[in-house]
Amino acid sequence: MTYALGTPSPTLQAARDGPHKETYLLGYPLKRTYAPYLHNTLTRKAGVPRTYQKVELQDGIPTFLDLLNQENFGGAAITMPYKVAIMEHLDDLTPEGRAIGACNTVYWQQSSDGSRKLIGHNTDCVGIKRALESITTPEYREKSRGRPALVIGGGGTVRAAIYALHTFFGVSTIYIVNRDVSEVETVVRGFTESPVPGFEPTIVHAKTPEQVEDLEAAAYVVGAVPCFPPVTEAEITARETVLAFMNKPEPGVMLEMCYVPRPWTDLAKLFKTNGWKVVTGDQAMIWQGIEQQKVWLNCSEEELPVQEVVAIVTEQVIEDSATGSEPPLK
């Protein structure tokens, strides 16, 4: 059953009437993140007594294990470098967490027998999905099914992007460009050694601009690397390989996941100048965070003031980019 905004489900109403709970962003280091502002704005607007804070885990997993067993624990977001390391401490994974092989969301689930299980989930894929959907039409998405896509990078976000592109957009072949060959091999090995039924993308490591000449143009591109100019030979070759995809005759859609210190990175500007539709990574961040709150509050999107929060956080990111201000916490 779906509940309209202003008509909360029993679970959301219980969260509103219940005790104050703490939710956390756990990782290291945590710089210029808008996650606290997003989550605190959302729960405040939804009337839920929860606060969200970032905790830098310099000692790794032990601090996390202490937090999740506190009575007021309301859920946790996990970021680098713990998205994979946390998995061995969980009781179960959602299909998304299992397929992607990395978890950015953790919560307690009550079983029918009264026992509790600690569940690992991944909402990054939903953030990528919603960001790409925001600048594409149903006609474009249908026309692009079966066409290749490109992901740039080699970390956990790349794994989520591969999952999103293959599962939600019907991409069959996914090219990876990255300066570090071993990182690409790790990504490929992670998918091939732990196969998930129905999830079988073809992954191709595109290493040089010359190789790109013989490859089909990408309908989607997801950039998942920091906003630094290429310096080393490997970085320069990777950038030239990406530009070879960009310069193919059929411009497509690009999501630039890096949005700090400014949403419009040099790479995003290059793609836009060359005729691509571009969406910035703050949108993926916002939508994956909304998905996390749906899990933690056990409610539907329709029950939450989603559009208002999207507008507030988007405006804040743009304003801070112009002024150089640090992200607010609430």
Automatic annotation (TrEMBL):
One of its GO terms (molecular function) is shikimate 3-dehydrogenase (NADP+) activity. Residues 25-106 form the Shikimate dehydrogenase substrate binding N-terminal domain. It holds the Pfam family Shikimate_dh_N. InterPro entries: Aminoacid_DH-like_N_sf, NAD(P)-bd_dom_sf, Shikimate_DH-bd_N, Shikimate_DH_fam. One of its GO terms (biological process) is chorismate biosynthetic process. It comes from the Eukaryota. Gene3D superfamilies: Leucine Dehydrogenase, chain A, domain 1, NAD(P)-binding Rossmann-like Domain. This is Shikimate dehydrogenase substrate binding N-terminal domain-containing protein. It comes from Naganishia liquefaciens.
